[in-house]
Structure formats: C-alpha cells, structure tokens
C-alpha cells in the first residue's frame, strides 16, 4: 500500500479489492456520476457523486470550448459544493473512526478531491489506486481466465421449477448461482421483468464475480442450465466453460403440472395483458398465424394454465428436444422425476439432491441416465 501526503493526514491507496480487503472499510464511496455508477460499481458501494451527469457534461464542454483552466476552476467550485453537501447529509452521522474507501473512474481528480476533504475532517481515508478501472480489470481477468469450478447444472424442460429449486437449495445453505436472478430475466421470450430492467453487462459480470469469489471449491455449486445468453446478458467465459463440462441433474415432471407451476412463476404476465400478448406475437416467426391467434384468445380470456400447457407442448418442448438433438444427449446426467412441483415436492427434490452422490463429489460418475422416484 502506497499513499499521498496531505498537510492534514496521509491518504492511503490500495489495489487490493478482495472481499476480505473491502470488508475492512466502513463505506465504499463511488464519486462518479449517477450514470457511471448505474452501469457498474464495486459491490456494496454507495454513490456520492462530486459531479452529476449534467455537471460533468458542462465541465467537459467548457474544457473543449473555452479552456482547460476555466473548466478546472468550474469543476472545482461544483465539486467543493457537492462534497460539502455529502458531508452535511449522507456522512453527517459518521464518527471519528470512520474509514471510507473512495474511488472514481481512474483514481484521478474526482476521487482525490473527495479523499482530501474527508481526510481533512479526520477520517482515515483510502483511495483505490487506478479507480474503478482497477476493479474492472480484476473482474475481467477472473471471469475470462481458466480455473475449474465445481458446477452442477440443474436441468429440465420449461416449467420444471428449476429456479425455485435453486432457491430451496440456497435456503439450505447450499452454494447456488442464480443467473436468472442476477440477470433480471427468466431466459425466454416471456422472461423479462417489467419493473426490473436487466443490468448492464459489466454489472452482470460484477454480480457473478461477487458470488464466484466467495465459493468453497470443495463443495458443489448449483447453477440452472442456461443458454450462453440470459436475456441480453452473456455468461462470462470461465463460468460458461464450467457449465458446459458440468454434470447435470435433470428434473422431469408431467406437462400439466409444469403448466400449473408456470402460472405461479409468471404472475406478472397474468397481470399485464399487453406484455403477454406482445410476447406471444414474438413467436410468430416460429408458428402459424392460426396458432398465434388461439394463444392470444387464451391470454385475453384469462385461460392462463391452458395457454401455458399449449406453449409447453407446441413451442418449448420441441425447442428443447431440437437443442438436445443438435448438441447431443449429455453423458453425465442424473434424472429426477417428480409428479408434483409444489413446495413440498421441491423440498423432497432438494433432499434427494443433497443426500445423493453429487452432494459430496462433482467428479463424473455416470455413464448414462439414472432415474430416481
């Protein structure tokens, strides 16, 4: 760790951004503009911008159209005013021993301005050497590189409650990566959340890394079998490679039960007829107009379970079967069959998973299917 000397106090700098290192700070303060913060930020960071988006654009325009000196003078005045406001509001309750970690885009003037004033208050302040770019490089290196991961895929056709089963396993302190939850998308044309837009690709990768870096490599990590993209977000290379090589637990359930489950798993579609009809229209390139018309009628008349069953049989199951035929049947697979997908049945499935051979080893052990009832 190096540092910057000020008349008030030494400001430390660091590039150690491990979970253990970050945990020692009382607050991680991102001083970039709100739009920069929204695109991605360190886990747990709060946004106290020294320049908001409009102010940053104003200073940048002044820099190119007037002069660098005038832009710096304008920026200094705005920055000082904003930092003063943050100290009087967001930081007003911080005690003498407060230890903040501060960063901007590349460890330049914005973070140094905030750190200098926080240090002048008497708080033991640390700057991230290289700013957010240091964090981003570390995330990219970790997710683009090699390295085995003890992944076990939870597989099955649409409506087999794979995501809910992951949540049951997580509630039992099993290691889980919920890619659909992280991506804010359920992985199909019906899968976006109206009230939760997808994060940026960078923010998606940060959230994935925040989970991966804390896993115990000696225990399995359960991940739903997804395609390479979850909505518009791409699964990072290291995790994708591990998913492709991972053993699978395939959940099988009757079509009628899967349709019933889907109506509970997608309640937003029942509430938002416009969204549901738009999603059905998105299937026009795959199905005849008469079929689309029938599905639209079901949606408009509230026949949601019948609609779910029709979509499963006519669209999702054939697509799943085509993908299996194209990619080949996975060799390392355990089949778990269930007649129900209610909460009690999912608890029983979790029991079978946790007490089975894969609960203790992720090494390949099957030459073909194994069915369990």
Q: How are the secondary structure elements laid out?
A:
Layout: E1 2-4, E2 11-14, H1 19-22, E3 27-30, H2 34-39, E4 46-47, H3 53-65, H4 68-88, E5 100-103, H5 109-121, E6 126-128, H6 132-144, E7 151-156, H7 162-171, E8 175-177, H8 179-183, H9 201-212, E9 221-224, E10 229-230, E11 233-234, H10 237-245, E12 248-252, H11 255-265, H12 267-271, H13 273-281, H14 289-300, H15 304-327, E13 333-337, H16 343-355, E14 371-372
Parallel strand pairs: 2-6, 3-4, 3-5, 5-6, 7-9, 7-12, 8-9, 12-13, 13-14
Antiparallel strand pairs: 1-2, 10-11
Structure description:
With 373 residues, this protein is an alpha/beta fold. It has two domains: 2-141, Rhodanese-like domain (Oxidized Rhodanese, domain 1); 147-372, Rossmann fold (3-Layer(aba) Sandwich), CATH 3.40.50. It is 48% helix and 13% strand. The protein has 16 helices and 14 strands. It has helices spanning 19-22, 34-39, 53-65, 68-88, 109-121, 132-144, 162-171, 179-183, 201-212, 237-245, 255-265, 267-271, 273-281, 289-300, 304-327, 343-355; strands at residues 2-4, 11-14, 27-30, 46-47, 100-103, 126-128, 151-156, 175-177, 221-224, 229-230, 233-234, 248-252, 333-337, 371-372. The chain has a six-stranded mixed β-sheet with strand order 1-2-6-5-3-4, with helices on one face. It has a six-stranded parallel β-sheet with strand order 8-9-7-12-13-14, with helices on both faces. A two-stranded antiparallel sheet has the order 10-11. β1 (2-4) and β2 form a beta hairpin. α6 (132-144) crosses α9 (201-212) and α7 (162-171) packs across α16 (343-355). 32% of the residues are buried.
């Amino acid at each position: 760790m190096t540092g910057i000397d000020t008349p008030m106090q030494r400001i430390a700098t660091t590039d150690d951004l491990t979970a253990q290192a970050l945990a020692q700070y009382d607050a991680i303060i991102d001083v970039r503009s709100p739009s920069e913060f929204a695109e991605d930020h360190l886990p747990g960071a709060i946004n106290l911008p020294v320049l908001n988006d409009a102010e940053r654009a104003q200073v940048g325009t002044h820099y190119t159209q007037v002069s660098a000196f005038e832009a710096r003078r304008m920026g200094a005045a705005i920055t000082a005013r904003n930092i003063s406001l943050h100290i009087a509001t967001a930081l007003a309750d911080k005690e003498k021993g407060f230890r903040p970690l501060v960063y901007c885009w590349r460890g330049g003037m914005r973070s140094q301005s905030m750190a200098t004033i926080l240090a002048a208050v008497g708080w033991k302040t640390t700057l991230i050497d290289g700013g957010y770019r240091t964090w981003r490089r570390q995330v990219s290196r970790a997710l683009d590189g090699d390295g085995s991961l003890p992944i076990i895929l939870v597989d099955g056709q649409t409506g087999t409650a794979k995501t809910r089963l992951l949540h049951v396993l997580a509630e039992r302190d099993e290691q889980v990566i919920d890619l659909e939850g992280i991506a804010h998308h359920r992985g199909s044309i019906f899968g976006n959340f109206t009230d939760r837009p997808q994060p940026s690709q960078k923010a998606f990768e940060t959230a994935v890394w925040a989970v991966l870096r804390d896993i115990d490599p000696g225990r399995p990590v359960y991940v739903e079998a997804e395609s390479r993209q979850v909505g518009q977000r791409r699964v990072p290379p290291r995790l994708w490679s591990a998913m492709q090589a991972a053993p699978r637990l395939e959940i099988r359930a009757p079509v009628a039960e899967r349709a019933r489950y889907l109506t509970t798993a997608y309640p937003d579609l029942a509430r938002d007829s416009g969204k549901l009809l738009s999603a059905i229209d998105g299937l026009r390139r795959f199905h005849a107009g008469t079929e689309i018309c029938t599905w639209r009628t079901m949606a408009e008349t509230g026949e949601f379970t019948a609609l779910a069953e029709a979509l499963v049989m006519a669209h999702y199951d054939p697509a799943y079967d085509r993908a299996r035929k194209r990619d080949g049947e996975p060799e390392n697979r355990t089949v778990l069959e269930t007649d129900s997908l209610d909460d009690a049945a999912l608890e029983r499935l979790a029991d079978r998973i946790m007490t089975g051979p894969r609960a203790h080893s992720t090494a390949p052990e099957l030459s073909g299917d194994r069915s369990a009832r």
